[in-house]
Structure formats: C-alpha cells, structure tokens
Amino acid sequence: MMVQTRNHPKQKPFWHSVDRKVKVIGREFSLKTILTGILLWIVFLLFMGLVQFSTPDMPDNDGFYHIKMAYLMRTEGLKPDFVWLPLTILNQREFYNHHFLYHVALIPFTFGDLVLGAKWAAVFFSSLAFLVVWRLFDRQKIPYAGLWALGLLAVSEAFIFRMSITRALSLSLAVIVLALHWLLTGKHKRLLFLGFVFVWFYNAFPLLIGIVGVYVAAVWLVERRLDIRPLLYSAGGIAGGLIINPYFPFNLIFVVQHILPKLVDTTAISVGNEWFPYTTRQLLINSPLALLVFVSAVLALGLADRRMDSRTATGFFLACLFGLMLFQARRFVEYFPAFALIFAAFAWAPILTDLRTAEPKLGHGGKKILGHAVQSHLPALVMIAILIPMTWTTFQSSKASVQGSKPHQLYAGVSAWLEANTPAGERIFQSDWDDFPRLFFYNTHNTYLVGLDPTYMQFYDAHLYDEWVEITRGRVENPSIKIAENFGARYIMSDLHHDGFLNQAERDPNLVEVYRDAEAVVFRVVGE
How far apart are CA 150 and CA 342, in angstroms? Predict the structure, then answer.
C-alpha cells in the first residue's frame, strides 16, 4: 500500500514571518522593526530601573527642584509666580524657566510620591533617549543595530549615572541624536521645529547649531558640496523659540548671563563639580569602553578599503567635539560616550556589511572552514562577547555610584521646622547655594537666598554675592548685623560642615540657635 505524501512549502523562521508592513499613525513600519524596538526599550527600562531603584535616594540635588517645579506647574498653572530666589536673576520679575518643556514632560510623574515620580521619570526618559539612538542606527542600516544600541549600557559608568539623574540631560541627548538622524536622512526643514522646541526645553540649545555646523562642514569636506540650508533652518527655529517665548525678553538676558560665564571661565566661581574636568585617570576608570570604542572606530577607518563618507565624517567630528568638551567639563560625559559609539557604528558599518555578505572561506580540499551562518554572524558573536561582561561591570559600578547619593530625606526636618515656625515668605539665609533644591522641595513656605547656580546671585548683585561668600566662610565677625541689614533675613540655616561660619555664629550675641538636628542648624537674629 502506497501512502501519498504532500509536499509542504518550507516554513520560514518566525523572525522572517513578522517582517511585514503595518501602519502606525498613518505611516508604514516593519513589524519586525516595531517588535525589535519594543524589546530593546524593555531592556533599557529594566537596566535603568535596576540602577535607579537600587537605592531609595535620588542621584542629584537638582532633581528635587525639577520635580517640585513640575508639581507647582500642575497645581498652580504653567507659569507659577517664582518668588523663592528674590536676590538672584531668577527673582519674581525676571524669572525664566529655561526647562519649561522639560517640566511639562515631568508633570505626569507628579501624581503621588514626588521622589518616586522623579526616579521613574529618569528611567523613562533615559530609556527613550537610548531608543532614539537605536532608531538612528536602524534607519542608517547599521549591521546589528540593536547590539550597537545595547552598547550604550556598557560604554561608561559616568554616562549611566548622568542618565539616571532627573534632569533634562537624557532628553537633550535624544533631541540632538534626532537632529543628526534628520540631517542624515535629508529632512532638514524639520530642524526649524526642533530648534524652536529645544529653546523652550533646555538651555543647551546652542548644541543644535554645533551639530548642524559639523554636518555641513563634513559634507563640504567629503562631497565638496556646501549646503547651509540646515544651518538656516536650525538657527531660524532657535531664533523663533527665543523671540516667541512666554518669558521674553528675560529669557534673552538669562541666556547671556548664564551661558557666557561657563564659556569664558568655568572655575571663576564655584559652580559645582560638573563644570570641572575629569582627570585622565578618572576617565580611564569610569569610561574605558567609550575611549576604546572611539579608538576602534579610528582603526576601522584604516581597515576599510574605501573613502570615508560624509556620514562617518560627521560621526568622527561630533565625537571629537564632545570629547573636547568633556576635557573641559565632566558634565559632557552625557554626550561623548554616546557619540563615540555612534562614530564607531558608522565607521564599522561597511566592514560588517562586507563580512555578512562575503562568500564562505575555503580550506584545503575546498571545504568550508566555517559555516556560512557562523561566518556571517561572527562579528555579532564578538560584540556579544564584549557586551556581556562590560555591561555587567558598568551595571555594578553604576549602582554603586547611585547608591552613594545623599539620603532623600536630607533637610526634611529643618524644612518642616522652618515652615511651622516662620511667617509665610520669610527669607532664609543659607550657608550653601546647592542646599536650595532640597529646601525648595520640602518647603515652598519660605524664600531663600541663592540656589541652582551661584552665578545667578553674582550677576544680580556682585557685591552682595561677595559678602555672602565672606560670611559663609567664617570671615565676618558678628555676621547677624549684615545678614539682617543687607540680606533682609532673620533666620539662618546651615549644614553642620561650615565650621568657620558656625564658630562665628556661636560667638555672635545677636544669634540664637533655635533648631538643630543631625543634618542642619537654624539661628535666629535677635536684638535688632
């Protein structure tokens, strides 16, 4: 008896079966691309979440200010009266919210516990930025785009730490990578919109001109074609965002006062560690793979048997630009590792493409040395072998950095006491400018002397700023007189580490200690 058999067509692998087009918001996307993006986003969320929630604390002081501002914008209107720093250029009349759209983006995270919301916001926005980098790789048809994007989790512990902060840093990275994507895909008119939005979002908007300028220069050098239209679009968008602005004209004054001091002399005033450079040893410790990736990209340029294209030249110049900026100020570690990786992906792309499509190598007798599948995906196996240990190392060191953060309850006690025992709007004299975000977070009942950046007070009144520095460093005897008369403050709050000031305060007959805990002390001016 003969059994008839039916020939079935060979079944395609699952991954190929989902490679069909689907419509999302009126545009067609490959289903495989969508699924890849979702999978990568889950990995990014998981990685950043595990780093972020390895501690209940927040990695940075400024996050307290940003989440509280977002809360006030939700509860009091998008332009709440900012009365809390009257002796700075952020006084009530001149206040400019240079993170306006970032604070708007934070509003959904202000329902419930604000600390928890701030931490979730950092996880969400950083993972979104990483996804934008992957999208750049995917649209540029970089071989193993997903693996290159996962490299963001391994390139630098300092980079991951910065991405874990509740600040506009991660979304700023997303914006400039999006700008690069639109430049490389010829969608230059969209830079008009991006420039406008960037101004409202974050005062790092001059970076957009730098990105576009580098691209224009790269195209001119490689293709001998000068097209300044991208510069005109981006500059036009920025100009529009500056002029059509809810804070005009004070936003223009602020931009000049805030950015120029950082460009002229970053060490003239103590503005925080992020504006000082890393030592070479620190960079080798916290960003070894970023440096190695950059060097490997230069090597790839030498190995490639072809002329460098404008895309790779753009990546090279941008990596160099952000590298130079990093050597000036450590805060730019939020950009250099990502652009070193982007440059490497561009530089290695032609070589990896050739390896994937090359014919199998034959040994003696014409036998294949490696199977075609193994040979074509050998680069991916090498990348995975590097990524796994480096990602684990970066994960562990990033957790350690985040876990070294100050307790999120810091100054909660002294803030509660001040709110309960002083009149509304009472000005508090602080001994340190970077205590403001936490005081503001816990207590908007009072107003404060200086915060967010010491130059804000220095530009408002240079003499008053110098006097504040002298008092807080313990160089003024009986400081109560000047504190009351020149600063209009009757209450002084200090941490317990300003020994010089505390010694002077304790000897001042017109200062009485009215509160003390393990974190801070409060004095009141008496006998005025």
Answer: 12
Compute, in degrees rounded to 10, the torsion defined by CA atoms 197, 207, 333, 438.
-50
| pLDDT number for residue 267 | 44
Do 444 and 488 belong together in one domain? yes
Q: What is the DSSP secondary-structure string of 67-124?
A: HHHHHHHHHH-SS----S-TTSTTSTTT---TTHHHHHHHGGGGSS-HHHHHHHHHHH
Residues whose CB is less than 8 angstroms from the CB of residue 373 and which lie 6 or more positions away in sequence, other chains included: none
Beta-ladder partners of 427: 447
Distance in angstroms (rounded) separating the CA atoms of residues 291 and 520: 42
Mean pLDDT by 10 residues, the chain (528 residues): 50 56 65 90 97 94 96 96 95 93 97 96 97 95 94 93 94 95 95 96 92 95 92 96 93 79 52 65 78 89 82 94 85 89 93 73 52 69 91 94 92 96 95 94 96 90 94 93 93 94 94 95 87
The last residue of a domain, from among 403, 425, 448:
403
Which pLDDT score is estimated for 17?
Answer: 56
Residue 515 counted as domain residue: yes
CB-based burial label for 446 (10 Å; 0-12, 13-18, 19+): buried
C-alpha torsion sign, points 413, 414, 415, 421: positive
Q: Which H or E element spans position 64?
A: helix 62-76
Domain count, the chain: 2
Would you say how long the chain is, in residues? 528
Q: Give Cα separations from 58 to 147, 206, 521 (angstroms).
A: 29, 28, 23
Q: What is the DSSP string of 147-164?
A: HHHHGGGTS-HHHHHHHT
Q: What is the 3-state secondary structure (H, E, C) of 318-333?
A: HHHHHHHHHHHCHHHH
Domain ranges, residue 424? 62-95+409-528
- Determine the pLDDT at residue 13: 54
Q: Determine the pLDDT at residue 21.
A: 65
Of 202, 172, 220, which Cα lies nearest the Cα of 101?
202
User: Pick from 358, 379, 403: which residue ends a domain?
Assistant: 403
**Claim to verify: residue 481 and residue 366 sit in the same structural domain:** no
* C-alpha closest to that of 136 among 348, 353, 351, 342: 342
